[in-house]
Amino acid sequence: MSRNGKVPGGDEFARTSESTAALSSRRKKQYAVSVRWEREMEEEESRRREGRKKTRCTCTHEDFHTLCCCGARRIGGMFMLMEKRDGSPVVIAGPCWPFCTFITLPLIVVLSGLVSYFVVLNRESPLPWWFAFIYFPILGLTLLALFCVSCRDPGLLERVTDEEAGHGGWFWNEQVGSFRPPGAMYCRECKVLIQDYDHLCPWTGTGIGKGNMLAFKVFVVMVNVLCYLSIGVVAFALLSGFA
């Protein structure tokens, strides 16, 4: 003990304790998900704890989602494939990800691949050699935009209390048991509250909101450009006598 009555290193120990307490007090974000869904998950968890674990494979869509998403953490109908320490999504999949994975993506890749193989990269094609440097970047940007829409946070909102909602014109939402800001809406398929929710797009597999609206608009433009460009390329090749 020093002359002033303080234990050596006491201040450092206090600061360390405070920082440890602050870190331990941090919790993952509590998103405004469906109250009914939360109740179902709690009942399932209680059954598992009691030892009445259900069969591993019951051939339901829930088992299919869980298997293909490698047991990713669920946020309503969304799947957290990669997240930060505080629970913020980095890579997230929507409820309609099978449609996007097995319909949208193959349509873009297969059809564009056929056009590329038989027309764009064909040495006997009437197209100039430099056209590939236009076609493939457009294809790449289309796929990149699709990934940004499908795997980006659409704008998931956290559950707030009366004090946090304040007097900003927030409204009570019965489905999630929390207040919602103006413009936010509850998505039945995503089972979560989304900021500036617009619609659920099965082609991209997820809900469209504030977080991925820009990427969605870019994807719509790029997929139309790619579609019309591919049709134009095939039509030009046929009219030029290439078959």
TrEMBL record:
<feature type="domain" description="Palmitoyltransferase DHHC">
    <location>
        <begin position="178"/>
        <end position="236"/>
    </location>
</feature>
<keyword id="KW-0012">Acyltransferase</keyword>
<keyword id="KW-0808">Transferase</keyword>
<keyword id="KW-0812">Transmembrane</keyword>
<feature type="transmembrane region" description="Helical">
    <location>
        <begin position="127"/>
        <end position="149"/>
    </location>
</feature>
<dbReference type="GO" id="GO:0005783">
    <property type="term" value="C:endoplasmic reticulum"/>
</dbReference>
<dbReference type="GO" id="GO:0019706">
    <property type="term" value="F:protein-cysteine S-palmitoyltransferase activity"/>
</dbReference>
<feature type="transmembrane region" description="Helical">
    <location>
        <begin position="218"/>
        <end position="239"/>
    </location>
</feature>
<dbReference type="InterPro" id="IPR039859">
    <property type="entry name" value="PFA4/ZDH16/20/ERF2-like"/>
</dbReference>
<keyword id="KW-0472">Membrane</keyword>
<dbReference type="GO" id="GO:0006612">
    <property type="term" value="P:protein targeting to membrane"/>
</dbReference>
<comment type="similarity">
    <text>Belongs to the DHHC palmitoyltransferase family.</text>
</comment>
<dbReference type="Pfam" id="PF01529">
    <property type="entry name" value="DHHC"/>
</dbReference>
<dbReference type="GO" id="GO:0016020">
    <property type="term" value="C:membrane"/>
</dbReference>
<dbReference type="InterPro" id="IPR001594">
    <property type="entry name" value="Palmitoyltrfase_DHHC"/>
</dbReference>
<protein>
    <recommendedName>
        <fullName>Palmitoyltransferase</fullName>
        <ecNumber>2.3.1.225</ecNumber>
    </recommendedName>
</protein>
<feature type="transmembrane region" description="Helical">
    <location>
        <begin position="90"/>
        <end position="115"/>
    </location>
</feature>
<keyword id="KW-1133">Transmembrane helix</keyword>
<dbReference type="GO" id="GO:0005794">
    <property type="term" value="C:Golgi apparatus"/>
</dbReference>
<feature type="region of interest" description="Disordered">
    <location>
        <begin position="1"/>
        <end position="32"/>
    </location>
</feature>
